[in-house]
Write a structure and sequence with these properties.
Radius of gyration: 20 Å
Largest sheet: 8 strands, antiparallel
Structural class: alpha+beta
CATH architecture of the domain at 83-174: Orthogonal Bundle
CATH class of the domain at 83-174: Mainly Alpha
Strand order of the largest sheet: 2-3-6-7-10-13-14-15
Strand content: 25-35%
Length: 352
């Protein structure tokens, strides 16, 4: 039964990677020069994978697996809008402006999110949950979705916006009682960073952590080379053909990809993506099909990838001005994709 469960898990992880638009290439060679371990599991509605090289400070694989699962379960109980008594659900249920004191992890995610909201002038905004729900992409996702009325959208916009969320002295509060937050665009990236920190506490210096397609790595793989990550062509999951468009060679970095083609609905011939533009209240409408961001930490890579989908092509200029960041945008042009990249991306691409 255990062997069967492991087989099912590996099949699910493979399926998840196919849908999430990335591949981890060359993690394990046929003849590993260094002993490599892999941990797998479920978290945050998706799968996770941890690959690491053991060092002289040996830690039992079962012990590390238990600690990773415990950590991820803790984070999920803090940040999942699908759990009624999670921290985020408790905050969202408040219908008054009183101060809420969250856990240190929850507070850190909100603080870092607000920082990116300021940097992007609101293109990234965790207060869009009421809009996400209105469009049918929140908890209790419905198959038969219709386009909301403009007055419904306008009413929500009046009471949302990152400037209506107050962050101060290890606490958060609302300026408007109906404000609700959604950490879906940043929580997995933050979880990747937390697992990475756990590995480093065990003095593991060569690893790759992946949760739902968000990745952070350190050091080298078992062959002593850079970790190689494949970025897929941004086609819908309904299309069975899969093609790797770009291959990155990275170390000591994080990678996150966001796209408008994975989760959407169609109404009267128009496709509506799950990526909501915080300015308009409507799903994004521009030529950007997917955005991949390379950054020092996965929390920021995750958030910026979403922000770039909202900002469009001009967002690449913002990334150019951030130290340690690179990005790739896949732009729809007629029936093809055009690649727009930051100036330093060629140094980490195998197929520029």
């Amino acid at each position: 039964m255990i062997a069967l469960d492991n087989l099912i898990l590996k099949l699910l992880i493979l399926k998840a990677r196919l849908l999430l638009g990335f591949s981890i290439i060359g993690i394990l060679g046929c003849e590993n020069k260094t002993q490599t371990f892999e941990l797998n599991g479920y978290t945050m509605g998706t799968t996770y994978s941890v690959v690491y090289l053991q060092n002289q400070y040996f830690v039992e694989k079962e012990v590390l697996q238990q600690q990773v699962d415990s950590l991820l379960n803790k984070l999920n109980l803090q940040m999942s809008t699908y759990i009624e008594n999670s921290e985020i659900s408790q905050f969202n249920s408040l219908n008054e402006k009183r101060t809420f004191t969250p856990s240190s992890e929850f507070f850190e995610v909100v603080s870092r999110s607000q920082n990116i909201s300021n940097q992007t002038r609101g293109a990234f905004d965790i207060t869009i949950m009421p809009l996400v729900n209105l469009w049918g992409f929140g908890p209790g996702f419905k198959k038969n979705i219709s386009v909301p009325k403009k007055d419904e959208i306008d009413e929500i916009l009046k009471n949302s916006g990152f400037k209506n969320l107050i962050v101060s002295h290890n606490s958060i509060s609302k300026k408007t009682p109906s404000l609700k937050i959604d950490l879906n665009a940043v929580a997995k990236g933050f979880a990747v960073d937390c697992v990475s920190e756990l590995l480093e506490k065990w003095k593991i210096r060569n690893y790759l952590v992946e949760i739902g397609g968000e990745i952070r790595c350190l050091g080298a793989n078992s062959e002593g080379n850079f970790w190689t990550i494949g970025i897929d062509k941004p086609i819908s999951e309904a299309n069975s053909q899969r093609k790797i468009e770009s291959i990155l060679k990275i170390s000591n970095s994080a990678v996150a990809t966001s796209g408008d083609y994975r989760n959407f609905f169609e109404d009267n011939g128009t496709i509506y993506s799950h990526i909501i533009n915080p300015y308009t209240g409507y799903p994004v409408k521009n030529r950007v099909a997917s955005a991949t961001v390379i950054a020092p930490f996965c929390t920021e890579a995750d958030a910026w990838a979403t922000a770039l989908l909202v900002m469009g092509e001009k967002g690449i200029e913002k990334i150019e001005n951030l130290e340690g960041y690179e990005a790739i945008l896949y732009i729809r042009k007629e029936n093809k994709f055009q690649k727009i990249m930051t100036s330093g991306i060629n140094s980490i691409m195998l197929n520029p």
